[in-house]
Amino acid sequence: MILITASCKNISRKDLSLTVKEYEAKGMPDINIPWPEDKLMKAHIALGAIRTKDFRQLPRRDSRKSGAVFSRIINKENLSFLDDPSKSLHDKAYEIQNIGPFISEVGRMYTDNFKAEQYFSEELIDIYTFEIYVRKRMLDLAEAIMNSRDPEVVPMQAGRPAIVRGYVNFITILIRSQNKTKAFSVKQLKRLNRELVKSINENLKYLDPASKKDISSEIEQLNEKSGGGSGSKDLTKVLKVLKN
């Protein structure tokens, strides 16, 4: 029985991802350079086609075959345009609006909706962490736009509430994920929890009272369900800050 169980676990961990050249043959962009908007679209199409054929062929985090591809998907260099002083706030805003939906869609692609246990659990934690970073950069950019008097970007100031709401919605989803003990290991959930706590503390200055209330309510519900586990204790500290 022990041998059979071990064998089954090894099969479930078997790396069925493709090589870099095989991904490129399916339309994946060059992974050696940051991906601007057109490359993100190509990557999205390629990943979608791969997922449709065989879910398990998506790039893996620590794979010798596909690890470099996965690293490019969640590489902060893809947002390096935000640090380019030659780019206008207007252009930065239009470019980043494609990265948010892209990484959200990648998260959906890596999620198995038919099982509680997740085949790509490790990758999902990395994807969530990267999206937290993307949302942070979006909030920072929205604030820069709010402080700008450039006639070209003043109309964009009306979009700030939607950026904040998108961040809050994503954070509340991740807080609920703390209860997904069948999907993620304790170690993985702790890693996600650290990123959550860090993110909320960093972005507190951007949250209005309603947003703080929504996040607080989600943390309180987590505490009720978890019975005050180690992960919720860290978030409870954030709860006190949110309510001050």
Strand and helix order: HHHHHHHHHH
- The end-to-end span amounts to 55 Å
The major beta sheet can be summarized as: none
Structural class: mainly alpha
Could you estimate the helical fraction of the residues in percent? 55-70%
- Count every beta strand, where a strand is a DSSP E run of 2 or more residues: 0
Number of helices: 10
Morphology call? flat
Which stretches are low in confidence, meaning pLDDT under 50 for 5 or more residues running? 1-11
Using the CA coordinates, give the radius of gyration.
Answer: 20 Å
Give the DSSP E fraction (strand runs of 2 or more residues).
under 5%
Mean pLDDT: 91
Give a quick precis of the structure.
This protein is 64% helix and 0% strand.
Description:
The protein has helices at residues 2-13, 20-25, 37-53, 67-73, 89-109, 121-146, 160-177, 186-203, 209-226, 230-243. It has 244 residues and is an all-alpha fold. Helix 3 packs parallel to helix 5, helix 6 (121-146) packs parallel to helix 8 and helix 8 runs parallel beside helix 10.
Note the topology:
Layout (H helix, E strand, L loop, with lengths): L1 H12 L6 H6 L11 H17 L13 H7 L15 H21 L11 H26 L13 H18 L8 H18 L5 H18 L3 H14 L1
